[in-house]
Amino acid sequence: MTYIPKKMQHYAHAAMNLINMDSENRVVLNVGGIRHETYKATLKKIPATRLSRLTEALANYDPILNEYFFDRHPGVFAQVLNYYRTGKLHYPTDVCGPLFEEELEFWGLDSNQVEPCCWMTYTQHRDTQETLAVLDRLDLDTEKPSEEELARKFGFEEDYYKGTISWWQEMKPRIWSLFDEPYSSNAAKTIGVVSVFFICISILSFCLKTHPDMRVPIVRNVTVRTANGTAGWFLDKTQTNAHIAFFYIECVCNAWFTFEILVRFISSPNKCEFIKSSVNIIDYIATLSFYIDLVLQRFASHLENADILEFFSIIRIMRLFKLTRHSSGLKILIQTFRASAKELTLLVFFLVLGIVIFASLVYYAERIQPNPHNDFNSIPLGLWWALVTMTTVGYGDMAPKTYIGMFVGALCALAGVLTIALPVPVIVSNFAMYYSHTQARAKLPKKRRRVLPVEQPRPPRLPGAPGGVSGCGTPGSGPHSGPMGSGGTGPRRMNNKTKDLVSPKSGPLGASIVAMSPRTMLDLNPALAMGKPNFQPRFPTPLAATPPVVSAGDTAPSVAPPVIPVPSIAVSTLGKDSGISTSTTTATTNSGNLETSKKAFL
């Protein structure tokens, strides 16, 4: 045996103590199969978080590998751990925003602490979620709802579960789908085509009946007395009326509109929402205007200026908005203007500001020099010229004649181009965003596999047992029993036999010696068997002493802690002929035996 001087032994013990102290200050985190190692003091930098409260009593602590296991996203955890180290939280570009938020919530971190350089990229998913929520409200999805969803929508969910649905409750959703959801069935498509046909015919009739060739003159026979005393007569055209055919066309169209409104109102799932809908308001006001027009023609046609009352029939043009129920593109266009309300308001504000400024400037600019043909006699007239110029229309009815006025007109045109061009890209981008998301939703699969949120069952804890260690069980029992049977504690748990070997006073060295035993390494951690090491114990030794049996009524004898010999191990690996033989003494709770074990291990 080689003699080692006492001074060298002192240095070796000091180095061993430093290594043990440093290893005790480090912690190993296994996140999604990737191991991360850091100092415990690093995890204490951000208090009141999951990583700042790590203890060995947690269920996800593995005493054999001396690590904590978390089945979470490893890529996000790299940024989380970097946040503990540097105090700066960055957003990984290869991770979706909601997943990043869920991971931060799991680790107990605030998502608002993301650095400014990553904030714009990180918040893009929020805009996307808002867009998808808007598209859900637009009801662009053509997927047919289930019977349970229909029962919940129409308010007879309890009757559906009881099986006591009446014939009206069964027919009401079908009628509503026929008249309000054009893409729900072939019959609904047919009714939708008929509705669009009547809308187009009504608008076309409203426009054509104002054409001179489509109107019938009203001729009056007027008798006059001539100068020589004879009576004469002539025909006087007082006014023109629309052809009678347009009246019958309007009657047929409005009869259909009236029938459609009544059916949709009766079969609607919510009457209040139906009445408050903007498209429905336009529909029944336009239909009501037809009946009001009939009443006025019947009882108020003899009044003067009765034709002015026809002005209210222009509300029928608004029926074009009913086409939004049949076209998803029109819904997207209207939603684009709603989403761009701020930009449109800003555009109108700058236009009004520019119109007022340039109208005042051109008014005084045209009065500085002699100008006999001055068109700008007042500032209100200049407002019209500034509006036409800034919108780049340019009718030419008013134009500046002086050089200063021309210079003001040039500035007005340039300002109008810049003012209108600035908010237009925002509106275009909003429309492209809604349209692209609509197309993507249409291509998504309608049915997806559901992932059940089932957690792994945990074994029950015995009263008085240490945290995270369950009681003994039968070999191979439990939902996570190992290949050799570990009492149902799973491959990442430590059974009672191994717990007896690791004494609280043995320290990390004793735990390392126990971890090197063949039954502990293969039984409790089968992943180590993948390297196929060959263990050759010198003599068979039980892993734990059998406690003495105490009969009922007897007092338990005081038994000293059993002395557990730890076998030496000869490990032979592939590719290496040399064997490593390590002989140890008995591992006991005694501190003197611990020193002997350390020396033998060195």
TrEMBL record:
Coarse class of the protein's main subcellular location: membrane
GO CC annotations on file: axon terminus; dendrite membrane; neuronal cell body membrane; postsynaptic membrane; presynaptic membrane; voltage-gated potassium channel complex
Gene designation per UniProt: Dana\GF15250
Species this chain originates from: Drosophila ananassae (Fruit fly)
Protein family: Belongs to the potassium channel family. C (Shaw) (TC 1.A.1.2) subfamily. Shaw sub-subfamily.
TM ranges: 190-208, 344-365, 377-396, 403-428
Stretches the record annotates as Disordered: 445-508, 576-602
Pfam families: BTB_2 (PF02214), Ion_trans (PF00520)
Keyword list, A-Z: Ion channel, Ion transport, Membrane, Potassium, Potassium channel, Potassium transport, Transmembrane, Transmembrane helix, Transport, Voltage-gated channel
Biological process according to GO: action potential; protein homooligomerization; sleep
Compartment(s) where it occurs, according to its Swiss-Prot or TrEMBL record: Membrane
InterPro entries reported for this sequence: BTB/POZ_dom, Ion_trans_dom, K_chnl_volt-dep_Kv, K_chnl_volt-dep_Kv3, SKP1/BTB/POZ_sf, T1-type_BTB, VG_K_chnl, Volt_channel_dom_sf
UniProt protein name: Uncharacterized protein, isoform B
All copies of domain BTB, residue ranges: 25-125
Ranges of biased composition (kind: Gly residues): 465-476
Record's compositionally biased regions (Low complexity): 581-591
Superkingdom classification of source: Eukaryota
Keyword Transcription annotated: no
